[in-house]
Write a structure and sequence with these properties.
The complex is a heterodimer of chains A (about 35) and B (about 220). Chain A is mainly α and about 35 residues long. Chain A contains one helix and no strands. Chain A starts with 8 loop residues before the first helix and ends with a helix. Chain B contains six helices and no strands. Classes of the chains: A mainly alpha (about 35), B mainly alpha (about 220). At the A-B interface, helix 1 of A face helix 1, helix 2, helix 3 and helix 6 of B.
């Protein structure tokens, strides 16, 4: 990474993990709910 | 049920494409010089915000059509779109503060844009709570339609809030009258992410709509 660029990768990773957890989690919940409506 | 299977397939494809967007955003899109890697949160935050607003807009339109035509399909669609919109608004409301902390130095500020988007989330929640609380199907559909229309009215205020009020939130750099002020590679990643979020929205709504149909067919299950 070029010099002088802020080092804040942890925030980026956290946001991407949270997004994946919410979207995949909702997909799984929907799948389970449609198996036993 | 064909609708359910198609919805599952579209959701599956959407999740695979989401992984591809992650790879493109994290490994093949340049890092912005002033904000650093945290700027890349933009590629999930903005599409989730746009899809949340789109979902509420469609809930409102479905509400108008239900009140005009008394067709249950619009009520079912509104319910599905509201639940899916809630999921996307949770993404918006969690990724926003995670971006804000390193860039603004604070997780949250009560400015117009942030407060109105929180209000959008609360409207989604209120819509779902209302549907759970009212037992009469006719009243439930009518009250939900009215609340959905209230949500539709809120949307222009959210979009224009960065122009109407003094706010920390950045102004639109793509959804604006002039050309997008974003380098080509970043713009392409953002557009790809937006398409994937819309695909996921469609897949989720199809499944949620099918779930309503299944529940109506087997009400005592």
């Amino acid at each position: 990474m070029p010099e002088g660029v802020p080092q804040n990768s942890a925030f980026m990773i956290a946001a991407y993990v949270v997004t994946a957890v919410i979207l995949v989690g909702y997909a799984v919940i929907l799948y389970r709910r449609t198996l036993k409506p | 049920m064909k609708l359910l299977k198609t919805g599952r397939w579209i959701t599956g494809i959407g999740l695979v494409l989401l992984a591809a967007v992650y790879v493109r955003a994290l490994a093949f899109t340049p890092v912005e010089r002033f904000q650093g890697p945290a700027q890349k949160i933009y590629y999930v935050h903005v599409p989730s915000a746009v899809v949340s607003m789109m979902a509420m807009g469609l809930v409102g339109l479905a509400g108008i059509l239900f009140l005009l035509l008394k067709d249950q399909r619009f009520d079912r669609f509104g319910e599905a779109s509201a639940e899916v919109g809630t999921a996307f608004s949770v993404v918006m409301l969690t990724t926003g503060p995670i971006w804000a902390k390193p860039i603004w130095g604070t997780w949250w500020t009560w400015d117009a844009r942030l407060t109105l988007t929180l209000f959008l989330f609360l409207l989604f929640l209120g819509y779902l709570l209302l549907r759970g609380a009212v037992t009469d199907p006719g009243l439930k559909a009518r009250y939900s339609a009215v609340l959905g229309i209230c949500g539709l009215v809120l949307l222009p205020f959210i979009h224009l809030s960065v122009y109407l009020f003094r706010t920390l939130h950045p102004q639109p750099i793509v959804l604006k009258p002039s050309a997008p002020s974003l380098p080509g590679e970043m713009l392409m990643t953002l557009l790809m992410s937006f398409v994937v979020f819309v695909i996921l929205y469609v897949g989720f709504v199809m499944q949620r709509y099918a779930l309503s149909l299944l529940r109506e067919e087997a009400p005592h299950a």
